[in-house]
Amino acid sequence: MISQNTDRRFFTSKAYSSFVRIIMNDFYSRLKSSLSIGLIFILVFSLPAFAGKKLEIDDNHWISIGAGMRTSFTSVEDGAPAGDARSQDFDVESIRLYINGQVHQDIKFTLNTEEIDGAIDVLDAFVRFEFDAMFNLWMGRLLTPADRIEMNGPYYALTWNQYTQPLYPSDQGGAAGRLGRDDGIVIWGGLNKFQYAVGFFDGLEGGANVDDEMLFATRIAYNFLNKEDNPGYYTSSTYHGGLGNILTLGFSYQRQGDGTGTATTSGDFSGYAVDLLSESVLGKSGVLTVEAEYKAFDADYSGATIPADVSATNTCFCLFEGKSYFLSGAYLIPKNVGPGKFQPYVRLVDNNPDDADDSDLREVGVNYVMSGHNVRLNFNYGSGDANISGYKGADVKRFSFGLQIQL
């Protein structure tokens, strides 16, 4: 799914000229087929002197450019076509260009791109009315309020392979949004250590949604210790000790009538998740991070309980029904080794559908953190049959090596 994301570098990052030129040259052959994305390309290259910093037109008008990339190598036991040899696969998981700007003292905009299905496409495109810490409004194509792992996106996760659980509808491949995004509106803000986000979205369009019902999505969180610091209502799964001691409890909920099923047999969907993040700075600046989540979905039609009238022309938007859990723990070793620090971790996942067999996954890995979420390397090994559908898959053993950079 999200690849997931996150893509929040457009708020604060400063792209350097050489990197942007490399990325944009690589994008060119695909961008030129899309007029809207092509216009962005022209804009970036028409301002070469400002590519390495935020262009400030005046006190209330500016534009900034950033970029992100994730690439990995994965090997799966007996995963080769022959069935009795290891698969060997390199993959560029994500390529993103972040554009952010301000047109008025209280009005900004965001436009992010991502490679989706082999072509450069719009990831985010929304207007941001930002008034104060308590009340703000975003509207366009944007993240649906959800649980922490979906709000992180891949770039701000603790672990490399965090998407081995069932996800909300906007992370289900396109019929109800894509990569955690959907067209809609979100009101967000906070008071002291309390944070909230409430939104309405298109959700599932067509198919089972014959009455054009909207998706309702909300997230609330309370910071018992230091307050998390993210753009808008986004989240992260580790701050590498940069914010001191953190203990945050979050709750998310989504619902859509006629949000599952087929065009001739529709049903409802609802789901909620409770997530917890604890980060403690220990002696000598070591950092202990614990992340946990409980998720429960109720879908009238699911991956194992499908309508009888499903056919090639009457497909089902079938979701997960049941419960899911995960627990992750990591320790950032305080001593530098070269330009970075090692952060070993373990992750345990259990998916328990109501209408099928349970599945689980165990993963151990290590991040090599060179510049927070901007530069990190990852090596991990996983074993189990849990996957993003929530339903039992093949029991596999695999390892992967990944690189992530952002500017």
Short description:
With 407 residues, this protein is mainly beta. It has helices at 17-31, 35-45, 148-152, and strands spanning 55-58, 61-76, 89-104, 107-116, 119-130, 136-143, 181-191, 194-201, 215-223, 246-261, 266-281, 287-299, 322-332, 341-353, 359-371, 375-384, 396-406.
Describe what you observe in this structure.
The chain has 407 residues and is mostly beta strands. The protein has one domain (9-406): Beta Barrel (Porin). The chain is built from three helices and 17 strands. Strands 2-3-4-5-6-7-8-9-10-11-12-13-14-15-16-17 form a 16-stranded antiparallel β-barrel. Strand 13 (322-332) and strand 14 form a beta hairpin. It is globular.
Element order, helices and strands? HHEEEEEEHEEEEEEEEEEE
- Beta strand %: over 45%
Radius of gyration: 21 Å
Shape, per Cα inertia axes: globular
Query: In CATH terms, what is the fold-level topology?
Result: Porin
Biggest β-sheet: strands ordered side by side in the sheet: 2-3-4-5-6-7-8-9-10-11-12-13-14-15-16-17
Note the main sheet: 16 strands, antiparallel, barrel
Question: Which structural traits does this protein have?
Answer:
mainly beta; 407 residues; Porin; globular; 3 helices; 16-stranded antiparallel β-barrel
